[in-house]
Amino acid sequence: MPNGDGGKPKGMRWRRTFERMTTEQGAFVGEARPGVTRRLGILDRLVR
Q1: For the chain, how far is it from start to end, CA to CA, in angstroms?
Q2: What confidence score (pLDDT) does residue 42 get?
Q3: What angle do CA 24, 9, 17 make, to 5 degrees?
Q4: For residue 28, what are the β-bridge partners?
Q5: Whose CB among 3, 4, 6, 16 lies 3.0–4.6 Å from 10's, allowing a Cys bridge?
Q6: Is 9 helix (H, G, I), strand (E, B) or coil?
Q7: Which residues, in sequence order, are bridge partners of residue 2?
Q8: 9 has which bridge partners?
Q9: Is the pLDDT of residue 4 over 80?
Q10: CB under 8 Å to 19, separation ≥6 — which residues?
Q11: pLDDT (mean) for 13-42
């Protein structure tokens, strides 16, 4: 529910939300990168 000024919901902590989302995205990318590079053959070319 928006606050009286029509902005963000009352009690919403945008900074914490974005920090959490950034951390979750970093973890996801860290886990996904090895699989993506293997599929694209990039890792094989770099290792040889």
Answers
A1: 57
A2: 74
A3: 15
A4: none
A5: 3
A6: strand
A7: 9
A8: 2
A9: no
A10: none
A11: 87
* Contact residues for 3 (Cβ-Cβ < 8 A; gap 6+): 9, 10
Task: Output DSSP code: residue 41.
Answer: T
Cβ atoms of residues 9 and 2 within 8 Å: yes
Whole-prediction pTM value?
Answer: 0.48
Are 43 and 37 in contact by the 8 Å Cβ rule? The answer is yes
Query: Coil, strand, or helix at residue 2?
Result: strand
Q: What percent of the chain has pLDDT over 70?
A: 62
* pLDDT per position as a tens digit, 28-47: 998 998 888 888 887 666 66
> What's the token pair of residue 42?
């990039």
Residue with structure tokens 């009286």? 4
User: Sign of the CA dihedral 17, 18, 23, 24?
Assistant: positive
